[in-house]
Design goal:
By secondary structure, this protein is α+β, with helices and mostly antiparallel strands. About 20% of the residues lie in helices and about 50% in strands.
């Protein structure tokens, strides 16, 4: 797991393999929330072979169990071997320092 530079007191960022991401989610503090970033390629009307890469995006909240299921195997071993990693950011707030929000993707 590689920490991304620029960490602040309330924010941490990592680039993780699937196994590292699952371990990070498993050990997240009780009460943490998990959000998955969804990116959808959007086709261009009347241009069959063309699309906007990640033309639509959203976030959805999932349970810890579901987050672990999603990250486990989400990158093929071939792509992981070539350096592909899952970006994960965590945030905490001064008003609720023991509650973390994990943004995955």
């Amino acid at each position: 797991m590689k920490a991304i530079e620029g960490r602040t007191e309330n924010r941490e960022e990592w680039l993780c393999t699937c196994a590292e991401a699952a371990a990070l989610i498993k050990k997240a503090p009780k009460g943490s929330r998990f959000l998955i970033h969804i990116r959808i390629d959007t086709p261009i009307i009347d241009e069959e072979e063309k699309f906007f890469r990640s033309g639509a995006s959203a976030f959805t909240t999932v349970s810890r169990k579901e987050a672990i299921r999603i990250v486990t195997g989400s990158i093929t071993s071939t792509l992981e071997g070539r350096g592909a990693r899952l970006p994960i950011r965590s945030y905490s707030f001064t008003s609720h320092p023991n509650t973390k929000i994990y943004w995955i993707g």
